[in-house]
Amino acid sequence: xxxxxxxxxxxxxxxxxxxxxxxxxxxxxxxxxxxxxxxxxxxxxxxxxxxxxxxxxxxxxxxxxxxxxxxxxxxxxxxxxxxxxxxxxxxxxxxxxxxxxxxxxxxxxxxxxxxxxxxxx
Length: 121
Description:
This protein is 0% helix and 62% strand. It has strands spanning 2-7, 10-13, 18-26, 28-39, 46-51, 57-59, 67-72, 77-82, 91-101, 106-111, 115-120. Strands 2, 4, 5, 6, 9, 10 and 11 form a seven-stranded mixed β-sheet that branches. The model has no long low-confidence stretch (mean pLDDT 96).
């Protein structure tokens, strides 16, 4: 079993910045990839950014150039640096990880509980 715990959400004015963190814990063999999703009211959950254990990254077009995903493999932690925030970035942000864990080793998709990001205009 793997647990993902996010932190760093909050209220910020348009143009501001926030950094989200997500720490994974449990009997982890590997976490690959790790990523961030978001869900605004009335919308489906969408991918924001993802990063492999080797550091390769992908971003949604809507956040390219403004958000940066990074990870610390030694700490099983993934970060999302969000700059130039816009009101349309308002959503609950969820951490996601595909983890190989446990004994015997199995692969599962895990989600954090979500953290609210609100951008005021």
